[in-house]
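A quick aside before the break. I want you to see a complete sequence-to-structure record at least once, exactly as it would be stored in a machine-readable document. Don't worry about memorizing anything.
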Amino acid sequence: METGMISATTAATTTTNKTATAKNALDKDGFLKLLVAQLKNQDPTGAGQDPNQMVQQLTSFSSLEQSQQTNTLLTGLQTQTAGLFQAQTAGLVGKTVKVDGSGFNLKSGQATMNLELASAANVTVTVRDATGNVVATLPQGHLNRGASTLAWDGKDASGTPLPDGAYKVEVSATGDDGKAVSFRTSLTLKVDAVTFKDNGIYLASGGNIFSLADVLEITA
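That is the input. The structure line, written in tokens, reads:
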């Protein structure tokens, strides 16, 4: 059923594109035919003829031809650039990247997340499961300004190991004056695959999908 639906959609899209292309070609050809016919049937030296108008018509013909050639060249360059960029992006497979975001991807009792503080702060991390229930509260104590790595052993408040998977994280950071301190969180992941879809590029890592635009850092 799914294949049939895709084929029908593709056929309808192809028909629409052919119709649009045919209409555009007819408009262009019609303009050229009318212009050429007019040039053939007028004498620029005859009475009542305006030489300036003749020059303008010839200029229009030349400009149209140049625009068509330019559009063809730009389309070709765009296709080549997109293919080259995709090939380069495929080289990210196996690389380690730092991605904008938050959360713990628990695996075999280990999970980490990066935290960057604008200034020194007292930090507490709250961990929630997929249903939103709090499974652990992790006081981090007083952390200095700059980058830190938050680690979790995958155990809940009673010390029971939790299953592997993705867990949501909430960070609370307050200064010694009790005011909130701004921070940024990120994840360090290894790229398993690169996907091209919806006119975008996405990276996959351990079942997680994220946009190439979210990548903050790439390492070997």
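Two observations worth writing down. The chain has a mean pLDDT of 77. Helices lie at 2-40, 51-90. We'll return to this after the break.
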